[in-house]
Design a protein that fits this description.
The structure is a homodimer of 712-residue chains. With 712 residues, the first copy, chain A, is an all-alpha fold. Helix content of chain A is 82%, strand content 1%. Chain A has one domain. In chain A, a hairpin with a 6-residue loop joins β1 and β2.
């Protein structure tokens, strides 16, 4: 399979993206960082974030090295000696380093942009918005640029998706640490700060006397910028790899089956299909860049509307540009048959459907978390009946909110499958993630304005500026809700595609998986354990936050008790201690969840076989979807219900109703920012682990496992 | 297939059971009902319970008639005209009436036993215990007796499990209403009473001034006695039917496959295998009767220990007796082959494993909810950090508590399958439920002593007596925790068996289900929707409780405001209004959940085909297990954490820690008593609906469904 020249498009798009990221970085850095106090606070935040990243990357170094050696010496060549070992191991390393680089770059600019955005708010809303948005875009563009260059260069050199799989696994193992670790960090600080500061000492949000306030702001950066960035990096690369691997497998089989009609594949057609995901992602990136250009705040426009406008533009441009490039692909090789050209257009359709589905998913999660819609209003009203009822209400609406996106995914999957078989489903995931550059940019905007608001408070910029920052912050929260719905949907389709590609891959390597039949007891056991794992994983993360937050609470109380001058504002609180607790705790607490995500799939494969492992992944994907959506939306709705009450509704701040709504928000914090979004990464890591370890698993009963119960 | 004479054993056991139930009823009724005030309160409770049952049974009458007519005119003969229509319809009717009868009998004695048990406590602990336990046993024995007589008579007359399936469906449709309706009723009253009475007016539990206190006590009877009884009736019959249908299907195929070795079936052997579930249940019932005989409180023994002793005895006796009857079965027909005799012994083994697994499951849920074990202690300690943290902690431990029973089920299923294939799994469910007579008796004891405590309070029997009643009540709570774990495990294995029998049944009727393959997109869609349904169902029930409790709260406040003499105790509260709200609300609110459980499986079968429906059931079973265990155990642990604090730990009553623990308890109430346990019934109803409607579903694409996406 020769690699077509058109791949250069993706490389160019990636290059432009990195260049624009650096340009935006320049735009942000040249802005005024504000007064001395603001610079001091921003300095603390930057220091804290860097400390976390340093400690985190040190641990990651060990972990990555270990997996690098395992791949180099054991996988995938256990059964096919000499095949792809060093290539996959090196790709793994590049993927890990790429993800670390993108995360670092995004966060580095994020912690610089916050104080500048706060200062920008003293000029006008537009200035503040632009700085925050440019800051966020650095993350979005860096993520996509690094990913796309990595994928296209590695595929260009090694010409097999199996090496790109190593790259993807590298990105995912970083994402697991960054997402879970960041999630634990941010909520340790947030919950700790709220429990003592707000509840016991009645300090306002972001009060500089609160020793955990800096850790809280650092948390926004490490959890919501670096964490979310690495999560989407991970899904983005995984969706491309899953589609490439499926195309290659079907190319070997010589046929792509789909209900609308099977297509016989030629060598030329296969080569084009394999790079189609990369090309369409390149097109998506160009669309994102244009979309980002369109995100401009005009006059009195709502900041949230500006962000959405960018997303719509990127989507529309994607439809047109991707059609154009589908046409280029279809004429790029004269040996491609008419049937294959028809298939290419169907694939274009699946990518468009995926993207539409992604946007719809984003907006359903927006619906379930907006304070002007029924669910959040009902949750807020439930606070009138006390703490327990607000919890019950938010819990229930969160569960109900699973239904619309589940139907959305099912319908998108059905149409995509109808058009292009399993490859079509994989390409729907690629389509959904095509404009991820815009999505990540919008998302990373959120924590920057959140931090900007805190710095404006601490830098004593006055009520007017804080109100401006609040307005920007509220748009950030909406963007975050949409991004989360989007990210969960995209990850879900991606892991389904990975599941299909895992099975095709196992078949190609000689495992006899005729089916993943729930009537086979081995398979049923796999599915059973799979359904339980996301629940266990969520619980472990939440308990981790709780344990760590308890330490934080003790430390805050200790500081207030030992030095009463902190509360009077005469002396500064000791921020380094709280940052230290959040940093060390988050790393210690993510060991068990990480091990689960790698060891359980391997154990299932060894004991119950490859088909059971596929069912395990299937079960985990479906139940993971339920838990991820439920937790994210419950959490978001509780948060917004509380904010709506704080805006003066139902009696406003300080009432018992408000207190009950704070309970909802505090429960929702680890739901929406730790456990919920980490499930995506869990699923991707488990799926990739399965694919990477296939060769190893085939050693046990030829992939049937050691405990063969099912009657074949 | 001639019906062997040995079936008479089950009939005799059923008869003895009913006779003993009536005898226990006599024993209870002849006891002293206590002072005038107690008789008055008990009268209110009885009145309320009867009103509920009357209204409930009226609605049920319509529902049952409609389904009776559907079965009579449409099913199962749509494709095989003239087959079994009236037989299945009549069996359906008998099943429904039987379940209603058992529920009515149990509740009737329950509401008589409460005041007598309270009065018994004035004599000594043993007297109170005996009355409550005899009262509870009426329910246990009536449930099992009616079920066993129904199953054996219907099978004896019609000689095909398909007619017994009608009986089972009848029992299940009643169970759905009784369990969901009772669950909503009991928590409407409980949450309503707590939110206003305890939280706003600082009234103690069961204070007669609280207008919802009678409704609360009625709720214990309709939810925890009638509801739990019909739930276990439902699982019990369903497990027998699933095993019978599998045996009959394998009989037609002429072989039972299992990893340990396939067995060719003769006509005689099949006839024996088909009745084995009934015989072993008869044996289990005899064991239960002996076990109940052993439940005697000696001197200063803990009441909880006495209940457990009965369970252990019943289990041991079952092992011996069932071996004896397996021997009788093996010699009852000289045409039975050696291989079939070997299979019978393996099947005996699976039933024993099922029973052991059930007991282990019961004790794991006990572990996760006992106040002297780590999870509940940690949850109680989390209350120190406030409302939100106690919720997060209980939520997490609830999710973690899913892991041990999931492993228990998986291991039991694996061993049972190894020994006897799918039939072995079904027989493990039968074994697990064999001693259900003891289990239901222990469980129904709980609400009786709970009511007795309330009546002792309201009848002013003094602190000493209330302490005695409290001791009995605490044993009841432990029994309830164990029963719930047991019930969920049993229902889970039962619905798995129903899933297998559904597929075998569909195959027998001509559907081409080669597999339930997750790689088939239709099947994957089915599984996806299946996983979501228990989440949706739980949320709807919880919201129903919340809505209804809000009405209850308004009514209680209204009464206190309009008539201040209620609070001073000068005038009685208007109990009929609160009972009316709970009754009507619970019926209105269960319409949507009931429709879901019948219409969604049919819709999946029509649209996506029978294999997708099987996957739907599989997905629902697995995710339903997670939600059922999590909700039951979270709720139980919160409840006990609160009680532990109320016992004087962490500062005891009235502190902020106590208030936080009450929030946990209130959230846990609908978790553990409404949503969690209703999921069992949901799963059984959905599985039976699938089986009953097979003929109808085969009309659509021959069982492939209208929307065929999967590539076969």
């Amino acid at each position: 399979m020769a690699v077509p020249f058109i791949l250069i498009v993706a490389l160019i798009a990636g290059g432009i993206s990195i260049a624009m990221a650096l340009y935006f970085r320049y735009l942000v850095l040249k802005e005024d960082p504000g007064n001395e106090k603001m610079i001091e606070v921003a300095g603390y935040i930057e220091e804290g974030a860097k400390t976390y990243i340093k400690v985190q990357y040190k641990v990651l170094g060990l972990f990555v090295t270990a997996l690098f050696l395992i791949i180099l010496f054991l996988l995938p060549s256990v059964i096919n000696p000499g095949t792809l070992n060093w290539e996959q191991a090196v790709a793994y390393l590049i993927g890990a380093l790429g993800s670390m680089l993108a995360g670092w770059l995004g966060m580095y600019v994020g912690v610089k942009a916050n104080t500048r955005a706060a200062q920008g708010c003293t000029v006008n809303t537009k200035k503040g918005f632009d700085i925050a948005f440019f800051g966020g875009s650095v993350m979005g563009l860096a993520v996509v640029g690094v990913a796309l260059i990595g994928v296209s260069v590695i595929y260009g050199i090694f010409q097999t998706p199996l090496v790109v799989l190593g790259f993807s696994f590298g990105a995912s193992s970083i994402a697991l640490f960054m997402k879970c670790g960041g999630g634990i960090y941010t909520k340790t600080a947030d919950v700790g700060a709220d429990l003592v500061g707000k509840a016991e000492y009645d300090l306002p949000e972001d009060d500089p006397r609160n020793p955990a306030t800096i850790a809280d702001n650092v948390g926004d950066n490490v959890g919501d910028i670096a964490g979310m960035g690495s999560d989407l990096f991970d899904s983005y690369v995984a969706s491309i790899v899953a589609a490439m691997m499926l195309a290659a497998s079907f190319g070997i089989a010589g046929i792509i089956e789909s209900p609308i009609g099977d297509v016989t594949l030629t060598a030329g057609g296969t080569a084009i299909l394999v790079i189609t995901p990369i090309i369409l992602c390149g097109v998506g990136l160009i669309s994102s860049l244009i979309g980002i250009y369109f995100i401009k705040l005009k006059g009195s426009e709502e900041p949230g509307k500006a962000l959405n406008t960018g997303t719509y533009f990127a989507t529309l441009i994607y439809f047109g540009l991707s059609a154009l490039f589908t046409f280029f692909l279809s004429i790029s090789d004269p040996t491609v048959t008419q049937a294959e050209i028809g298939l290419l257009w169907r694939i274009w359709g699946t990518s468009a459907i995926g993207l539409i589905a992604g946007i719809i998913l984003g907006f359903t999660s927006d619906y379930f978390t907006r304070d002007d819609k029924k669910p959040t209003r009902n949750i807020a009203n439930a606070a009138k009946e006390g703490h327990a009822v607000v919890i019950l209400s938010g819990f229930s609406y969160g569960l109900i909110s699973v239904v619309p996106p589940a139907l959305g995914i099912v319908i998108a999957m059905a149409i995509a499958f109808w058009l292009g078989g399993f490859f079509g489903v994989a390409m729907a995931a690629v389509g959904m993630l095509a404009i991820v550059g815009t999505i990540v940019s919008n998302d990373a905007y959120g924590p920057i304005v959140d931090n900007a608001r805190a710095i404006a408070e601490q830098g004593a910029l006055g009520d007017e500026v804080i109100r401006t920052a609040d307005r920007l912050d509220s748009a950030g929260n909406t963007a975050k809700a949409i991004t989360k719905g989007f990210a969960i949907g995209a990850a879900n389709l991606t892991v389904l595609a990975l599941l299909f590609s895992f099975v095709e891959e196992a078949r190609t390597k000689g495992a006899s998986i005729a089916s993943v039949d729930l009537l086979n007891v081995n398979v049923l056991i796999g599915a059973f354990i799979g359904v339980v794992v996301p629940a266990l994983f969520s619980a472990l993360l939440i308990l981790a936050v709780q344990r760590n937050a308890a330490k934080m609470v003790d430390e805050i109380r200790r500081q207030f008790e030992e030095n009463p001058k902190i509360l009077t504002g005469e002396e500064a609180a000791d921020f380094s201690r709280t940052i230290d607790i959040a940093t060390k705790g988050s790393l210690r607490e993510l060991i068990l969840p990480s091990l689960i995500s790698i060891l359980i799939p391997i154990a299932i494969g060894v004991l119950f076989g490859v088909a059971a492992l596929a069912a395990f992944l299937g079960g985990a994907i479906l139940s993971g979807f339920v838990f991820a959506v439920f937790m994210s939306n419950s959490g978001g709705a509780w948060d917004n219900a509380k904010k709506w009450i704080e805006d003066g509704n139902l009696g406003g701040k300080g009432t018992d109703i408000h207190k009950a709504s704070i309970t909802g928000d505090t429960v929702g914090d680890p739901f929406k920012d730790t456990a919920g979004p980490s499930i995506n990464t869990l699923l991707v890591v488990m799926s990739l682990t399965a694919s990477i370890f296939i060769g190893f698993l085939l050693l046990f009963g030829g992939g049937a496992g050691l405990l063969i119960l099912g009657i074949p």
